[in-house]
Write a structure and sequence with these properties.
It is a single chain. The chain is α/β, with parallel strands linked by helices and 170 residues long. It has one domain: 3-Layer(aba) Sandwich (Rossmann fold), CATH 3.40.50.450. The chain contains 6 helices and 6 strands, in the order αβββααβαβαβα. It has helices at residues 2-17, 56-63, 68-82, 94-105, 126-133, 154-168; strands at 25-30, 33-39, 49-51, 86-89, 110-113, 137-141. Strands 1-2-6-5-4-3 form a 6-stranded mixed sheet, with helices on both faces. β4 (86-89), α4 (94-105) and β5 (110-113) form a beta-alpha-beta unit. The termini are far apart.
Length: 170
């Protein structure tokens, strides 16, 4: 908590230096669907996109000792990002979050789809804040902010993964 409070002046200065990356942008239209976003919308102009979607079958196989396909898939996502591909995902599963951590650590660009919209004064968490400030991330949500929303449903997960596929087909 203390570090968070100590970083407030730095975050405020960053937001003032890069206001375009921290204002909620409404009605970003992608394939006829409207999203709200925070971050670098220029990432939508990338030439190549690829989804990060770890299938439950890969996770189940890994739990039974067949880890190669899951490991290969996760490695392929990182390799694509290293080649300049913008990765797109809701980053829901543990394995998808691991890929996102590598993307953040290696400072690779990506688009993350969120299950809840943005409050008026939204700001990303620490790691995403830094990536947002440097223009490496775009956070998108197809739904308005709901203060009562606490858990993501399976239907939301499926819908977000389908939206990631739509974005990748641009």
């Amino acid at each position: 908590m203390m570090r968070y409070v100590q970083m407030n002046p730095q975050r405020l200065a960053t937001k003032r230096l890069k206001p375009g990356f921290f204002h909620v942008q409404r009605d970003i239209i992608i394939h006829g669907r409207s999203y709200d976003g925070v971050g670098n919308t220029m990432l939508l102009m990338a030439q190549i996109f690829a989804p990060v979607h770890v299938r439950s079958a890969m996770v189940a196989a890994a739990e039974h000792g067949e880890t190669e396909s899951l490991r290969n898939y996760m490695n392929s996502c990182v390799l694509k990002a290293r080649q300049g591909v913008v990765m797109v995902s809701p980053f829901i599963s543990t394995q998808e979050k691991m890929v996102m951590q590598v993307l953040l650590r290696e400072q690779r660009p990506f688009i993350i789809l969120l299950d809840n919209g943005f409050r008026d004064f939204f700001k990303p968490s620490d790691a995403l804040f830094d990536a947002c400030a440097s223009g490496r991330v775009l956070l998108l949500s197809p739904w308005p902010y709901d203060a009562t929303k606490r858990h993501i449903s399976r239907a939301d997960c499926v819908a977000l993964n389908q939206m990631a596929e739509e974005i990748c087909s641009m």
